[in-house]
Automatic annotation (TrEMBL), chain A:
Sequence similarity: Belongs to the binding-protein-dependent transport system permease family.
Cell compartments where the protein resides: Cell membrane
Protein's recorded name: Peptide/nickel transport system permease protein
Taxonomic path: Bacteria, Pseudomonadati, Pseudomonadota, Alphaproteobacteria, Hyphomicrobiales
A GO CC term assigned to this protein in UniProt: plasma membrane
Superkingdom, natural source: Bacteria
Membrane-spanning segments: 12-30, 101-123, 135-157, 177-197, 235-261, 281-307
Organism: Chelatococcus asaccharovorans
Protein's UniProt keywords contain Cell cycle: no
UniProtKB/TrEMBL annotation, chain B:
Native source species: Chelatococcus asaccharovorans
Recorded family membership: Belongs to the bacterial solute-binding protein 5 family.
Protein location: Periplasm
Organism taxonomic ancestry: Bacteria, Pseudomonadati, Pseudomonadota, Alphaproteobacteria, Hyphomicrobiales
InterPro entries, A to Z: Peptide/Ni-bd, SBP_5, SBP_5_dom
UniProt signal peptide: 1-31
Protein's recorded name: Peptide/nickel transport system substrate-binding protein
SUPFAM superfamilies for the chain: Periplasmic binding protein-like II (SSF53850)
GO biological process, one term: peptide transport
Gene Ontology MF terms: peptide transmembrane transporter activity
GO CC, any one term: ATP-binding cassette (ABC) transporter complex
Amino acid sequence: MIRYIASRLMQMLPVLFLVSVAVFSMTLLLPGDPTLSMLGENASLADRVALRERLGLDLPLPVQYLRWAQNVVEGDFGRSLRNGEPVSEMLLQRVPATTQLAIMAIILAILIGVPCGIIAALNRNSFGDVAATSVGMFAMAMPSFWLAMLLVMMFSIHLRWLPPSGYVPFLRDPMDSLRLMLLPAVTLGTILAGLILRQTRTSMLSVLSADYVRTARAKGMSERRTILRHALRNALIPIVTVVGLQMGALLGGAAITESIFSIPGLGQMVVDGIFNRDFPAVQGAILVIVTSILFLNLVIDIAYSWIDKRVLR
Amino acid sequence: MNNTALKPLRSVGRRLLAVSAMAGLMGATLALPGKADTPERGGTLGLSVQLTTASLDPLYGNAAGADRTFLNLYAEQLVFQNGKYDFEPGLAESWEFQNDGKSLLFRLRQGVKFQDGTPFNAAAVKFNFERLMNPSIEHRKRASAELFESVDIIDDYTVRVNFKVRSALSLVRIASAEGSICSPKAIAELGEDFGRRPVCTGPFKMTSWSGNQFIAKRNPDYWQKGTDGKPLPYLDEVQITVQPNSAVRLVELRSGNVQFIDYLLPKDFDQITKNADLALLDTGKGMLEYIAFNVSKPPFNNRDLREAASLAINREALVKVVAPTVGSVLRYVESPEEMWVYDPSVVGHSYNLERAREAFRKSGFNGEVSLMVIQRDPDIQIAQLVQGMFASIGLKMKIEVVERQGFLDKMNSLRHDFLIARMEHNVDPDNLYSQFFDKSGVFNVTGVDRTETTRLVQQARGELDREIRRSLYRQVTDSVLKDYIYSWLIRIPYQAAVSKRLQNISLDANKSLTYDKLWLKK
């Protein structure tokens, strides 16, 4: 197992290198001038040119890349061009926020999606199955912005149970943090639950008709044990794949939800950075997102091997 | 020194003091429903605002209006420019022009402390202005710094600020962000981090800036006293959240999470007026939408074509569709009505289909023009309406929707036919007039020779008398309207919305909230 993990870690290095080159080049090739967002649109051309020189933005792209890569290896992601904040500090604030949101959303999605998917598969074509599948499809089709606003209208404006937005780090005040994160997690979790429900149902249907399930039942094993020990375990790999992929997407792509609920997360950092041509912020955030996704994939692969030992062979 | 020449200048200073005193008596605060009489202490004020700031260091902000929302919490200047564009004493108790208007003498308030406990005095003022003037510091107020020459300490509480030229902007700059007086000790000790943890004299101390959230706590040593004789401010804490989405800002206000939101869209006004707990707040600020023709190349180097396009636009119709009930036709670089330069007699480009058709025929143009707009509302909506209006005179037009940075890139390199953009009035008309009509103005993106308007704008800047300046700006306006280089479209006022619990609301010249006397009704 250790050798397996080590080899997977080694494979990450060239991917990270290629990603870093791509991210760096793409951000710098965007049209527009970061000095406009730094100095304001009223700044003179001379001031902007001087600032470009000071920041080294007039140097050839490979030189800029090497400088940046060297600093990143030393742990220095530079400072935000927009507000001068060290990018590493921005990341330290934003990674916990995004991670907390992603974990809460995915737990919620699993808690809803997996049991509903199993029940739907066990009662195929029943009213419950049709209802669960339809609700799942509706959840998947809902735009997150719309669902978020509906939840806020209901729970913040009419019932006044939960605050509509805001963020408190979990370690500073766990209860307040969970309260603030509940609506965004429900927004994302509901949508993902639909996807997990569909996947669980399909996976379970394919294993429920397998020979080993029939054998287990023939041996007189209880239905509960047959489903949980034999059927679900074999149906888990595609479910874990979907959960893993969605977790990866949440780490980098929850910008809309983060924006609506004023969560200072990575997705919002990337979007703001792109609009303001804040290159160091975008580069730092994307590098962290890609690295997290690579590690997540590793965790999923380890989970595969735990579920099915044949993966290691 | 010629004392006779100085008399009118001194009287300007006295007049300003008199005006400010009057404004104070009349109450510069806005009349809001539910205005209570006795201020209550305590509570946390929440604001949800559209724009963030680039830095909390007063010299490193890059958007005067947006920055001021934050700056008013923790920083103060020697003089304060109020919502009527007049000057009031701030950290200086009084001031007077000297040296033919090239110097300003300030008598400073005593007993004021910075938030780190160090004293505010003449040395601190000199330190801050010398930091502004220091060419080796690459701050973002370089244009303002160019005006300053030196600072003389007369005694511990009297300073003279000398300027390179006599300028109407000298007092404006002193009252602007760059005139903020902050703790020399904190500036020296914190270095770059001063931009995130500023230490000045304001009513609140910035305690946290995390992503889009800013928290400021009451400064217990603030120098101003409330009506109860105790130190201001009344509030314990202010929390500002930056939320670019207007729908979300509105939800935050309606849920009671915040008590103030800015940049309310006209379509949402109803939701505020129908809610008994909320009120609209007319900030007096507005978005001025205009068209700028690029005359450096065809097709709009053709004056007849520009005239045809300008006269084909039905601005009343634009107002009805884009900003019904609140918008108005924009006649020129129009200031808010309460600004001294406002001129109701200017006649802008009027809708005249017959004249437009005639000018179009004379232009001999039969191709297609391309209108560049930023991907945002209401610019795209306006562009679509203009497209229909042009069709009525036979002028074919396509719309090129571009993301903001790409738009600026193309605009600055004059690679467009014409564009729709927007502007806002600042605390002094020089801001817009110099940016649009001075040859070095950053919004002078039309490719036109600006020798005459540059002269007029610069002359107006050198005058301290507002009536003279007003007449010079009028000449600029008339000259620009004749050329059809810009086509002014509509004005959409910015409304903020507030909880009726929020009392004693007062805005500065940037139309940003001032926080020292604000209080929340329990």
